[in-house]
Amino acid sequence: MVDRKKTVESALVAVYDIQASAGDGAYPVDEYRVGSLAFPKNYLRSLTRANPHDLAIISVKGDSMLPTLADDDVVMLDTSKRDLSYDGLFVIRDNGDALLVKRIGRASQPGCVTIISDNRQLYASVEKALTDIDVVGRVIWTGGKV
Predict the structure, then answer these.
(1) Tens digits of per-residue pLDDT, 49-105?
(2) Which pTM value belongs to this model?
(3) Could you tell me the CATH number of the domain that includes residue 81?
(4) What is the rounded CA–CA span in Å between residue 100 and residue 56?
């Protein structure tokens, strides 16, 4: 049973009209806020210690991150997490333009990272210099259709 007397504090997370490609790259034209989603503060705290103003929700386009992320899934980014010295799922701008959601891993060369697609049968991993990548944020939550 739900205790209807107890109020749950919520935090709003901005939703943007942006699609990060789970493929070869999406070029966002309009990056503007289209709404917000409310999350219980305790739930957000279990995901991250970041300020809700540092969180953003965007869409995923493509199949390169299957089975982890599917076309039209949404991801929540912690934009305060931009350090690529640890592995994880990140949204990055490749060469300043293409917006990608990819797994980031260690590279064989210093000053580089490996950009990994989970759908390895169709998409090969590539090494990129850190200077060619702008980190938008780390993916900390996903949502999608059933």
Answers:
(1) 999 999 999 999 999 999 999 999 999 999 999 999 889 999 999 876 788 999 999
(2) 0.86
(3) 2.10.109.10
(4) 15
